[in-house]
Structure formats: structure tokens, C-alpha cells
Amino acid sequence: MNYSRCDIVVRYLRAGTIHGFRRADDVESRESRMNVVQEQIVPAKTGHVLEVAKGQHLRLTDLEGKQVVDMAVFNRQNLRDRISTSYSRTRQPPQPGEGFRGFERLVEGHLLLSTALTPLMTIVKETAEPKGIHDTYHRMCNRSFYESFGHPPRDGCFETISALMEPYGMLPEELPDPLNVFMNLEHDSANHRWVVREPVTRSGDYIEFRAEIGCLVALSNCPDDVISACNGYHCTPVKLEVLAP
Ligand SMILES: [Zn+2]
After folding, report:
1. 106 and 2, same structural domain?
2. Does 4 share its domain with 99?
């Protein structure tokens, strides 16, 4: 039997792969079969550190809506190699013939790149609309931030993630600028200022990352309920899940 070139391509596609290309529905069906291997509720104003193995997914679910999570990602084999939000915005691998790529927002398909340009994780799914509402410009809230606004001493995301990383031998000043998941930071071009809006997430919205290498992830459920609209002035728990094929 003779097959045209088109027939052969169709046969390969039906078989599932062609030169490493995987059909979208194959990927979806495989990922829908993923099992939850870890599940954790992170109460309001607390944090959690966990390892995510290569190929596993990390899903962060905003249980009640409008809750920001500061997320610091490290190469598990070399903790000095850690997330760079500026590289993640400006060093996504280009398409053939494409010029400089600088993104204001990270969305599905984008990599989280490290300070040494190591691909750490890929954003594979997010449910909130509009998509890509995550801050890649700010660092973390901290004690001096709250005190500068006249509030009594209280820990911020910086102190939470510092404490989580202390057992790994990391000093607070070594922490990277995190990806501030669900943080709605908007640039006011007319006035050259940044404005913090309420998150767009609703109850049950989630974002999911695939680990491209073994990662250590330190999360802070942001405790700001007094200074900005960061968490809608009401801090709430989030859920993290690790999923494995
Ligand atoms: Zn915070």
C-alpha cells in the first residue's frame, strides 16, 4: 500500500508522536492521570517549603480568592542557582527569526529561569482571568516595610521565607526576588508609579508549574492586610499540591 506524505504524518500523529512532537490531547490525558503525591493547606500568613522532582507538577490553589503567594524557586542541586524574575521576563527562548522578547507578564508556556538561566519550571496552567496577573517586579514585604507605615513589628514574606531557608544554610540576604503569584501590580505610566490592585483570582483558581529539574520551592502566603490591596485586605489560606505522572 502506498501512503502519501500527508497520510504518513497522520499515521504518526495517530500513533502519538512525530519527531518528539506530542499531541496536545495526549499531553492533557497523561496529565489528567497525574496523582496527587502531596497536599498541604498553607494557612493565612504562614509559609511552606517543599521539594518538587523533575517532571512533577506544583499546583497552587487560591481557596477563597484574592490571595498572593510569594514563591522562591531554587535548583535543588545548587541552591545558589535560583529564580531570576528579570531573566524570566526577558530571556524566554526565542522562536526562529524572532527578535528580542521582553514580557511584562508571564503566562502559560513561559519558563521560570534562574540567575544562571537554568530552566527551573514551566507555567503549564492557570485558571484566573485575565491570565498572567503575577508580579515579577517587586521583592517581598518585610518588617521594615510594615514599620515604615507605622505598624507594630510583624513578619513579612521576607522573614517567612528566610526562616524556611535557614535549615538549608541560606542567609536572608541571599534570597532571590520571588515570583509573586496572583499579585496584581499595575504600572501607572502617566505618573511613573506602580499600583497594587486586588488580585483577580476567585475561589478555586489555581496556577500549575512543571518542574524542569529538581527544585526546592519556598512559599510565603503573603500577610499584608493593612498596607495595600495586595490580598484584598483579608489574608486567607491556599492549597499546594504536588502531582506526579
Ligand atoms: Zn508579602
Report:
1. no
2. no
- Using CA of residue 179, residue 183, residue 186, residue 187, what is the dihedral sign? negative
Q: Give per-residue pLDDT as tens, 218-228.
A: 999 999 999 99
Domain extent, residue 1, equals 1-33
Is the domain of 99 the same as that of 136? yes
What is the reported pTM? Answer: 0.86
Distance 192 CA to ligand 1 centre (A): 22
- Kindly state whether residues 147 and 226 are assigned to the same domain: yes
Shared-domain flag, residues 125 and 49? yes
- Do 9 and 98 belong together in one domain? no
pLDDT band for 158, please (50, 70, 90 cuts): very high
C-alpha cell at 239: 492549597
What confidence tens digit (pLDDT) does each residue in 64-100 have?
999 999 999 999 999 999 999 999 999 999 888 988 8
State whether 180 and 144 are in the same domain.
Answer: yes
Ligand 1 centroid to residue 49 C-alpha, Å: 16
As for how many domains the chain has, the answer is 2
Please give the C-alpha separations between residue 225 and each of 67, 121, 198, in angstroms, as whole numbers.
Answer: 10, 29, 11
Q: How many whole angstroms from 186 Cα to the centroid of ligand 1?
A: 16
223 Cα: distance to centroid of ligand 1 (angstroms): 6
Q: Which three cell numbers stand for residue 115?
A: 540567575
List CB contacts of 206: < 8 A, sequence separation 6 or more: 59, 60, 61, 62, 125, 126, 127
Residues whose CB is less than 8 angstroms from the CB of residue 59 and which lie 6 or more positions away in sequence, other chains included: 125, 206, 207, 208, 209, 240, 241, 242, 243
In terms of domains, do 240 and 152 share one?
A: yes
